[in-house]
Design brief:
CATH topology: S16 Ribosomal Protein, Chain: A
Structural class: alpha+beta
Number of strands: 5
Radius of gyration: 13 Å
CATH architecture: 2-Layer Sandwich
Amino acid sequence: MGANKQPSYRVIVTDSRNARNGAFLSILGHYDPRTEPETVSINETEALKWLKDGAQPTATVARLLKKTGIMEKFKPSKEKA
């Protein structure tokens, strides 16, 4: 998303077998690196639901989830199971 030299990104859930720009299952939020500080908006309940269902975040999305505190909330529930 975004315009030329003005990037903004969606955080989505997709099947690994889909094409890079192919269909996705859900939009979790967005990330805008151009603001100071960076704007990260992720639906916490939706993200936790997908993580509990076995979704594997990419390195970049894992960093964003850690920055928003969602990964810390996921770890205790992961240890209970």
